[in-house]
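Intended use. Records like the one below are meant for learning the mapping from a protein sequence to its folded structure. Do not use them to infer anything beyond what is encoded.
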Amino acid sequence: MTFIRASVLRSFMFNGGSWRSSGQGALLAAWVAVSSAAWGQEAAPEVPPPDAPPPAAVLHEITARELKAHVAFLASDLLKGRDTATPESRLAAEYLAAQLLGHGATPGGDVLEDGQASYLQKFPLARVAPDPETTTLEVIVETPAEEEGGQPVRKTATYRMGRDFQLLGVGTQTETRSGAVVFAGRPTEAAPAVDEAGVFVIRDPSAPSRRLQRQAEGADAPKPPLATLLYRGAGFDPSQGRVRSSLTLLEAERPADPTLILPESARELLGFDPNDTTPRALPQVQMTLNLGVTREDLFDHNVVGFFPGSDPERTREVIILSAHYDHIGVAPNGEVFNGADDNASGTAGLLEVLEALASGPRPARTVAFLWVSGEEKGLLGSRWFANHVSLPEGYEIVGNVNMDMISRNDPLAISLTPSDKHPSHNTIVAHAVAACQAEGIEARFDADQYFFRTDSANFARKGIPVVFFFCGIHPDYHRVSDDVDKGDFDKAAKVTRAVYRLVWSLANATDRPRVTAEAETKTDPNIGSTD
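Structure written out for the chain above:
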């Protein structure tokens, strides 16, 4: 391995829980100090020509043995499944930050209050769960008097979470919602759908959601109801459901989108025929939902570093590589979900590309490395980074290459997305195919259904061209059996070398990547060769 020399190591320190520069001048000073020493020269580096092939000696440094060594640590029981916002997740993040430091990358995370540059980017989270003690549904039903001059009949009931209903879709704050009630039923031409905005909606569990139907048709989603109520038949026991917590990214308070699941008997109070599927308002009914929430504010970290580009004209254009380093933690019985393939393999792949770029010539554009946490909880870390890019001001991400699971299934094939049928298809894809071919692996376009299930989606939503390398689902996916001994590290090394070839090509190309429905199929003929 090629590491930064000792004089540079002395200019850094581990301080306050993060690797950061001990010099002054924040990120710019760190950049100058680290990049000049790391590359062993004070003069400006030579800019590779656009058609320069990737250095053969550098490619040979990406090995199955080193990949396995990284995965063996990251997927060990010591890290307890690298669950988001845990001490073990932090341990993994520090391991990655130390690798960036050792290879001389410039810190690309937060600039801290004392002006020091860090490899870590902190992002805020909240773990929320409904509180059964304070979550109730109050129902008032008023029916007209049976005789003229008589008094209306008023019935009331209070239902409690855990005893009388189950609840899904809690927000981040305690709140109370009151309003009218409608029955969604099954709309027809003769009986059109009722307006669901701002009311409680009783829905037949087998009927499709009107909101999902409209979203599927491309219309703007309507204002959501106050809550959705579903009824279950005989045998449903609300007390059998367990209270589930969820992690949410605290960019803003998350509103509740509650769904209540009640037994069929609870519908009797409302006094309407469950066999009547006509959509209608229920003017005699009013409801109040008290949503109690337990909340724990947390944080986790992305890990960011970069090598500045050698071309002054293109150094502010950034090719960013990404992989999530988190997994799903420990099973209730104490068994560890080690996540060797998902995604210690992709995390290790980025480490090997880091080493390769550190030991070879600098490409024209800046190359950044991003390891994110919270992917398993809903792409949280990458969403935070995409919305709060921590690279130096004026730098623009022009392409993203993402690795998520690269060490299983067919040893001579890897799945890529987007395909040419996907709206995010772009000019990176043809280069990725050529890079795979150069390493003797087939690029298969059978993963478009996973496009929005990995971190590259958050870059694509910003209009940035992306490509995602993925080995596909296997029997050990999200099981405690996803261990290091199942990995095919020869395959992982081929995929990682292909990624290095791709990044080298993109970072040196004259034109920056672009999204296009008719992306060019031509690519650099030298991408598959070496010097």
